[in-house]
Amino acid sequence: MKSCLRLLPMAFKNVIVVGATGHLGPHIISALLSTSAFSVSILSRQTSSKFGPQVTVHLIDDSYSYHLLLAAFKDKDAVINLLPCYFSEDIPRIKKVADAAAEAGVKRIIPGEFGCDTQDDEVVEAIPAFASKREVIEYLREKEAEGLSWTAVVTGGFFDGVIKNGLHGFSLPARTATLYTPGGYRPISYTTLSTVGLAVASILSYPDHAHFANVYIYVHSVRASQEQILFALEKATGEKWETKEADAREVRGKGLARLKNGDWGGLAEVVVGGLFSGVDGMDFARRRGGVVNGELGLVEEEDLDQLVK
């Protein structure tokens, strides 16, 4: 996956990534470093040489002390906040990051919106945990008056997880697939982790610095139904897979019941059940304006057969 990242003078040269050691962080850092145009830092609770000498590490304590955040954000142009945001308990820490960014004079924050479209009421109704992400965006709107702009990057599910981690019903080792009804037979948007990284780097290097300010933007690598992914996997493996069906709404209901009883393991069921519930907002091609892949120098849509190899 290649991108034509723009190397013009930028407003967002000094970038710090919060929560960089998760699944997405390394891909974003790799994309930033690939241009030689950014000075990249991370905020970490422990010293790390994972990203090499090109990346500066700012240490933070478990409570994310405000004075340490201010020190880390000094002279930074952009903050990429990848801290998880699924429960109400996550919100105060994320708001604290935004407060410190605004006070330190940071120009742009990219919140951990990556995933489904939390602008869409039906999506949030299907996956209630995403209401926390919406609350964060509303808070960032308030910070606009303090000079802090934001860009929410909506990506759909991470395609890598669909295949490698057994999410969304596919098991590569067992050659089995669970197809969720009614939505599993409708295309939805997915983005690979590497493409998410390229999108973020391209946003921060875009010639018109205000173009992506204070908006949601949409990118995807591919639109595919579970059935289409299954056919691609069978083609790639040269084997017929064993399949079964499950009602997405029943899976979602079980997950909600688990969460109500304090079992956070129910979150995965709620997300998968909501994702395949048939809500239109899961397919970005169906929304007005579509995706901005072209503006960011990304391929408009990748080949599904190539992605599953």
What features would you describe in this structure?
With 309 residues, the protein is α/β, with parallel strands linked by helices. It has helices at 25-33, 66-73, 91-104, 121-126, 131-143, 159-164, 193-204, 226-237, 248-260, 266-275, 304-307; strands at 14-18, 39-44, 55-59, 78-81, 108-110, 149-154, 157-158, 170-171, 176-181, 188-191, 215-218, 222-224, 242-247. The strands form 3 sheets. Strands 3-2-1-4-5-6-11 form a 7-stranded parallel β-sheet, with helices on both faces. The protein has a 3-stranded mixed β-sheet with strand order 7-10-12. The chain has a 3-stranded mixed β-sheet with strand order 8-9-13. Strand 1 (14-18), helix 1 and strand 2 (39-44) form a beta-alpha-beta unit. Helix 1 crosses helix 7, helix 2 (66-73) packs across helix 3 (91-104) and helix 3 runs parallel beside helix 5 (131-143). The protein starts with 13 loop residues before the first strand and ends with a helix.
How many H/I helical runs? 11
Strand content: 15-25%
Helicity range:
25-40%
Q: If you compute it from the alpha carbons, what radius of gyration comes out, rounded to the nearest whole angstrom?
A: 19 Å
Name the structural class.
alpha/beta
State the low-pLDDT regions, or none: 1-9
Strand order of the largest sheet: 3-2-1-4-5-6-11
User: Helices and strands, in N-to-C order?
Assistant: EHEEHEHEHHEEHEEEHEEHEHHH
How many E strands?
A: 13
User: In one word, what is the shape?
Assistant: globular
